[in-house]
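Transporter substrate-binding domain-containing protein: structure, please.
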Amino acid sequence: MRRRAACLQLLALLLCCAATAADVQPVLRLAANYWEPYTGAELPGNGLAAEIVATALQRAGYATAIDIMPWSRVLSNAYNGQSDGVVAIWPTAQRRARILYSDSYLSNELHLFFLRPELGDRSSMDALTGLRIGVMRGYDYSDNFLLHDNFQVLPVDRVVQNLLKLSVDRIDMLLEDKRIVAYNLRHRSDELRGLPPLRHSATPLLTLPLHFGMSRRHPQAEQVIAAFNAQLAHMRKDGTLAAILRRFDEAQPIKFTVGN
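Here you go.
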C-alpha cells in the first residue's frame, strides 16, 4: 500500500515537472543596434521594431532577450552564432549567406532632407549630381545607390551629426527615414538648437524592406522563421500590427515641410 502511494506521488511529481517544462518558453537572444526609434536600449519595449518582433515571437511560443549594441557587433554576433538572430535588418546578397530572413514586417522609406528650397526637385539619384549627401556609416542602402558616382556620399556614425552638418552647409542633403529624423529632432533638441525647419523630398529616394533575421548557425532557424512568419500574417489580419504602428505614430507625430 505504501509502495503504491509512493509510486503515485512520484508519478504526480514527474507529471508536474513535465508540465512545468512544457510551460517554459525557449528564449531567443537577439541583437539590435542603436537605431532609435526602431531599436534602442532606452526605448519602451526596446523600440518599435523590437515590439513587433517580440510580439510575433511570443505568439509563436518564444521568449526574447534583446541586446543593444553597435551595428558592426550586431552583424558579427549573428554571423558567428553568439546571437540567435537580429531584430531589424535590411537584406543583401552577402548577408543572406549567413542570415535567414523573415517576411518583411515594415518598410523604411528613406527621404532626402534639406534646408534650401531650390533642392526640392532633386528626388532621383540622377538629379543629385554634384551634391553632398549625408548617410550613416556601414549601412547597406542598396547596390544601386552605393554604385552611383554622380554625387558624394559622406558617412557619419550618428544621425544628429548629419543634421548638424546640414545646418552649417557641410552637406547639401541627408538620406534618412522620417521616423528617425523626427526622433532626433525631438530628443536631441539641445544639440540641434537653432536648426531651421527641415524639408524633405515628396517621395522616398529608397524604400527598403525591414526583416527579422535568424543566424543560419542556429539549429532551429528555419523553424523559428516559419513560426514568426505565420504569426506576423495573423498580426496583419487581426489588426495587431496596424495597432502597434498607429499607437507609435500617434505618440510621436511626424511634421515636416514637403518639397520646395
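Notes: The chain has a mean pLDDT of 90.
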